[in-house]
Specification:
Strand order of the largest sheet: 1-3-2
Number of strands: 3
Number of domains: 1
Order of helices and strands: HEEEHHH
Structural class: alpha+beta
CATH architecture: 2-Layer Sandwich
Number of helices: 4
Length: 151
């Protein structure tokens, strides 16, 4: 794999880690990012399923490895990558419950989809809340910076 390609995507991932470190309490985790050309999903049987990021966490020790598919994320926009990144970071918190559920006998083969939907919704809520907060802050700054000296 081309070192330049990896470095370019590493910069994008590092920026997201910095941005989301405090809001998601990422600093309390021992996170490692490992870069691959391609990844396969462990749940999706379809060989055409494109896996961008995949997390493997030892939640009980606040330890996780994030596998990154360079060939997949280099095709994504910054906004798309941010949403994918948030989705995987939310798995840091949902995997704990999923591991308990997965140990139960008799689960339907697509039961993992419930965890994926919950994780997706939580990531979207976090991202939307952050965007609304930024918009509200910009509006307040603009409202407070209106020149009233001419009145």
């Amino acid at each position: 794999m081309n070192k330049k390609r990896v470095e370019k995507q590493k910069v994008r991932i590092d920026a997201l880690c910095e941005k989301w470190n405090a809001p998601l309490f990422l600093g309390m985790w021992d996170l490692r990012f490992v870069y691959f050309d391609n990844l396969k999903s462990s749940y999706e049987p379809d060989d055409n399923f494109e896996c961008f990021l995949k997390i493997n966490s030892g939640w009980e020790y606040l330890d996780a490895t994030v596998s990154v598919s360079v060939s997949s994320i280099e095709k994504s926009s910054d906004d798309e990558l941010e949403e994918l990144f948030l989705h995987e970071m939310v798995h840091l918190y949902t995997n704990e419950v999923w591991d308990v559920v997965e140990d139960c006998k008799g689960l339907p083969k697509d039961a993992y989809k419930h965890n994926e939907r919950l994780t997706t919704m939580m990531a979207k809520i976090i991202l939307n809340t952050q965007k609304l907060t930024e918009e509200r802050t910009r509006k307040e700054i603009n409202d407070n910076s209106i020149d009233t000296s001419s009145t």
